[in-house]
Structure formats: structure tokens, C-alpha cells
Amino acid sequence: MRVARWLVAIAILLILPPLLPSFLVVVMTEIAIVALFATAFNLLMGFGGMVSFGHAAYFALGAYAAAILVKQAAWPMLLGLAAAPFAAAAGALFFGFFIVRLTHTYFAMLSLAFAQIVFTVVFKWKALTGGDDGLLNVWPPAWLKSPLAYCYFTLVVVGLAMLALHAIVDSPFGYALRAIRENPRRARFIGVNVRRHQLQAFVLSGFFSGLAGGLFAFFNGSVFPDFAYLNKSFEPLVVALLGGVQSFFGPLAGAVGFKILETYIARQWPIYWPLFLGAAVVFVVVALPQGFVGLLQRRAWRTRTAR
Amino acid sequence: MDFVTSLFPWITNGPLIVVQVMSGLSVAMFLFLVSVGMSLIFGVTRIVNLAHGSFYMVGAYLMVTLAEMLPDHPLAFWLALLVAPLGVGLLGGVIEVTLLRRIYHREPLLQLILTFGLILVIGTLVLLVWGPDNKSVARPEALAGSVKILGQPFPSYYLLVLALAPIVAVGLWVIFYRTRWGMLIRAATVDREMLGALGVDVATLYTQVFVFGSLLAGFGGALSAPTVAVALGMDGDVLTTAFVVVVIGGLGSFAGSFVSALLVGELQSFGILVFPAVSIVLLFAIMAVVLIVRPWGLLGHPEE
After folding, report:
1. To the nearest 10°, the Cα dihedral for B163, B167, B168, B172?
2. CA A178, chain centre distance (Å)
3. Is residue B71 part of a domain?
4. Which of B48, B113, B124 is nearest residue A237 as measured by Cβ atoms?
5. How far apart (Å, rounded) are the C-alpha atoms in residues A15 and A13?
6. What is the arithmetic mean of pLDDT over A239-250?
7. Which of A45, A124, A274 has the CB atom closest to B277's CB atom?
8. Residue pLDDT, tens place only, A98-148
């Protein structure tokens, strides 16, 4: 039954793109990338109870690593893309080493501070990153250049990455992470090395965020310092919150809703988009702490127990 | 010594150092005004108000509007400097009563996310009200020029900032340590539940503290408006620097904010001389060191 459901989902994803108008193929590609970014982020927030306010740093490290290797070092695209998650993971290891020593507020704010550093470095290091102008013409090779081909490529890469993330969440490591989220002191008593688990989660989360960044660089055809800015750090947070942080697929659902909204609202009224985002976050926090998926789940659970 | 002078050519230039120290002190004043409010709000309500930089920005923008609206009179500037912070205090009060009050009992993470969301909301509203272009505020006529200090030019507006700094610091000290309200605030920092059990209306105290903290940020923004380009990115810049100050000093510590603002102000002032491009990175590096050695800050207390 479960397997059947999965096969149906995969079949739909494979059949759907050619049937969609080309503009929606592009939106679908972007949804997949955002879903990966938000799911990687949620490994920390939902399962580890650690909120990073600077995840754009790892997204940007991935995007810039891929773009720089392809543009400045003339690497082939696939190699550049493969390097992206490792560059981001290296950054996450370095910053994470300091960040996981802290809890809650301090954790969130130090991650924000490091993202600000990444942004500043990217912005100022003109020779390598192009500074404010970014790096342009970072396109995939001819066989991936059509939106449809890149959409399939992204779906496959994101699908594999999501499988890996799901396996991580479902592993003993994932359960140790949940234990740490619920009660770090108790987790330590039963022999879990809290800090090491947190750092591993941080690096893994950075790894997949970097992969999302690399995919986005070739999707976008260019990279800009904005990728490391506050607004970008908001994105996975909002997406995960909207979708629900308690479930693995919450961020995926959130990404679909978020991108559809963005496609319509941000195109029509670009100025109001951040206002909408911020207001959505405030609303979800005050009124719907479980996210929309959480709301549906709770309703489903209630009807089931009522029977 | 030759090596040192070749590396830092200004080190033998006494007057330049004096002027640099003074401009560092005025930077410290702005930093202190934001961070003490942020620290105060955290101490009492346990909420880190990420929108504090946004309040600072709103203070500066209100100054722009008031400077345009008020008639051309020598006293107009001072009136604006008084009214702009009150406007920000009002904004803070509205936010506390309508939003923050609902989430005091919830997880700290949700509180952070909420104030994070407010950054976007306030930022966009400022864009809609004041537009995307940078604004500037004229300095009052008496303070528009510069004075010579040991032969070095020094903007006289900064003298005002330097003169206000001790007044603000002493004023806050008197409020915190010599009034009943200040005593309640300090008591709330130590044990809020006990304070409530003793019959103090804690909810009202929270609102007052939030308004007061916002007001200080607004004052910082208004006072800084004539010294900078009033621009949309101010909120993020101010937030990150104020955060560095608060973390180095210790969240919730009044003296910590003061000492750390001085330290960071001077560091910024001299950092520009020594490492122009990376002074901000240096700042964060110092914060990282403090966080590793003393995560609760120089003068703060460990979280229980």
C-alpha cells in the first residue's frame, strides 16, 4: 500500500512535466530546489530543535562553489555541482563547531552572525565572487539546457537527496537527534554525545543546503551575494513553518504552497512579497504553531479517534 | 618599533589617535542605546527582540519626516529628537500588546521566529511609507561644521553625541538603581514568577519595559540620523552590531552593554584604520571567541 502510493507519486512526477506549460516547468524545478533546502533546514529545526537564522550561508557556499569552479576554474558542470555540497559542508563544519556550543537564542543569533560574515566576504571579494555584480552565465551544458531536461535532472537529484535525508531521519542517529530536541540533559545521561550529534546534524544540513544552492546556481544561470542574505535565510524557515516542522514532508508541502503563492504574489506585487512573508510568519507563530500540515494532521487524528 | 610603525603608520600620530578614540566613543553611544534596550527587554521578558534594529531604523526615518514637517526653527531639530523616539516607543507598545503578549509562555524558538518575521514586516512598511531612496537629515545649524581638536578636524555634531552619552548612562543608572520601577525591573530579571506572586502586575511591567527599550532604540536611530545615510539596510546592520555588543557584554546586563559598547565602538573606529575591509569580520571573530570562552558574555550570568 505504502509502496504503491510512492510509485504513484513518482509516476506523476515523471509524467507531469512535459504536460505542463513551460513556465510551470520552471516553477516546478524551483519548488524541488526549495523543498530540498527547507527539508535540509528542517533536519535541524524539526528534528534537532535547533533554529538556524543563517542557513543562506550554506546555500550560498554551495551556489558560489559550483559557479566559481565552473566559471573561474573551467570545471565541467557535474563536477562543479558535486563539489557544491562538500564546500557547504566544510563551511558548516567550521561555523557549526562554534554554533553548536550554544543553545536556543545564542545558537540562532550566532548562525545569523556567521551568515552575515559569508555575505560580507562574498560582497567584498570582487576578484573571486564578482562582488555586487555576481557571477553570470553559469549555465548547464547543452544536454541539460532546456527547462524540461533541467527539471528532470533536478527532480532526480532532489529525489535522491530526499531519500538520503529520510534515511537519516529514520536512522538511530535521527532518533538520537529527536531525543536531544526533547531533553538534551536526559539524552546525555543515556550516553548520547549531544554536541557531536548536533554538529553532525549541522554539517549534514549544510551539505544538503549546499546541494540545493548548487542546483539553484545552474537553474538561475547566475549567482549573487543576495543568496547569503537575511531574506534567503528566511526562506527555509518560512517554508518549513508553513508546511509544519514536525513531519518530514511538511517542508515539501510548504515549498509547494510557498512557491505557488510567490509565483502569483511576487510577480504581481513584488514590493509586498516580504510583507506577506513576514506577516505569514507572525500569523503562523501566533495562530498555527503546528503549520498547515500540522493542522490537517490534527484534524485527521481527531476524526480517527472520534470514530 | 620600526616594524610597528611601518605596519601602523598612525601609531606615532597622537592627535589622530585622540580623534579616533573620540569618534569611537560616539559610535559606542549609538551602540549602547540600541543594545541596552535589547538587553533590558531580554532580561525582563526573556525575548530577544530581533526587530530592535528595525526600531532604530524607524527612529531615523521618523526623524527624516519630522525634519521635513516641522517649520524651519532652531528648536525644531530638538523637538524632532524628542518626538521621534516617542513614536518608536508607541510602535513598540502596539507590538507588545497585540503580538508578543500572546507568546510569552511559548518556546523561545517561536518567540525568535516571530520577532524575525517582524523585521520583514517593518522593513517593507518603511519601504512603502518612505520609498526606496536614501534620505538624509540636516544637522542643526550650530553643530553643522567641525572643530579642530589638536589640529585634527572633528565634526561638532559628534560633540553633542559625546556630551549626551554620560547623561544617558547616568540617567539609566539612576532609573535602574535608584527608582522603584528600576528595582522592579531588576527583580523581574532575577525571578519573574516570584515578582508576580508578590503582587506586582508583571504584564504591565513587560509592556512598560518593551516600550522603554523601543524608545531607547528609537532615540539612538533619531540621534544617528544626521550622521548617516538613512537607508533601508539599516535594520540588519544595526541588529547584527547590536547583537555583537549584547553577546560580548552579556544578555540582560546593563553594565555589560555599557562596557561592551565602548569596546566595540573603539574597535570599529580603529578597525577601519587597520583592516578597512575586514573590520566587521574581526568583530564577529571576537564575538565568537567570547562565546566559546564565556557563552554568557563578559558581565552576564550563565543561563540556568
Report:
1. 160
2. 19
3. yes
4. B113
5. 6
6. 86
7. A124
8. 899 888 778 887 888 888 889 888 988 888 888 888 899 888 888 888 889
Interface test with A, best of B39, B54, B105, B113 (most A CBs within 10 A): B113
CA of residue A214 relative to chain centroid, distance: 12
Residue B288 lies in a domain: no
**Contact predicate B11/B4, CB 8 Å:** yes
Helix, coil or strand: residue B106: coil
Lowest mean pLDDT among A154-158, B143-147, B167-171, B213-217: B143-147
Q: Which of residues 190-209 of A touch B (CB under 8 A)?
A: none
Find, among B229, B290, B235, B272, the residue nearest to B23 by Cα. Answer: B272
Number of domains observed in the structure of chain B: 1
The chain-wide mean pLDDT, for chain B, equals 86
CA distance B238 to B261: 13
For residue range A200-212, what is the model confidence (pLDDT) as tens digits? 999 999 999 999 9
- Residues in B closer than 8 angstroms to A286, CB to CB, are 99, 102-103, 114
For chain B, percent of residues with pLDDT exceeding 90: 32
pLDDT, mean of residues A50-78: 93
Lowest mean pLDDT among A8-22, B202-216, B290-304: B290-304
Distance CA B282, CA B66 (A): 37
Distance from C-alpha of B301 to C-alpha of A281, rounded to nearest angstrom: 31
| A interface test, pick of B109, B125, B245 with most A CB neighbours within 10 Å | B109
B103 belongs to a structural domain: yes
How far is the C-alpha of B263 from the C-alpha of B28, rounded, in Å? 8
Q: Has the ipTM of the complex gone over 0.85?
A: no
Residue B247 in any domain: the answer is: no
Domain architecture of chain A: domains with CATH: 23-306 (1.10.3470)
Determine the Cα–Cα distance for residues A100 and A49; give it in Å rounded to an integer: 12
Instruction: Report the C-alpha gap between B278 and A184 in whole angstroms.
Output: 37
Residues of chain A contacting B110 with CB distance shorter than 8 Å: 285, 289
Model confidence at A291, pLDDT cuts 50, 70, 90, reads low
Q: Residue B123's pLDDT is what? A: 92
Domain membership of residue B142 as a residue range: 28-232
Q: What phi and psi values does residue B191 have, to the nearest 5 degrees?
A: -155, 100
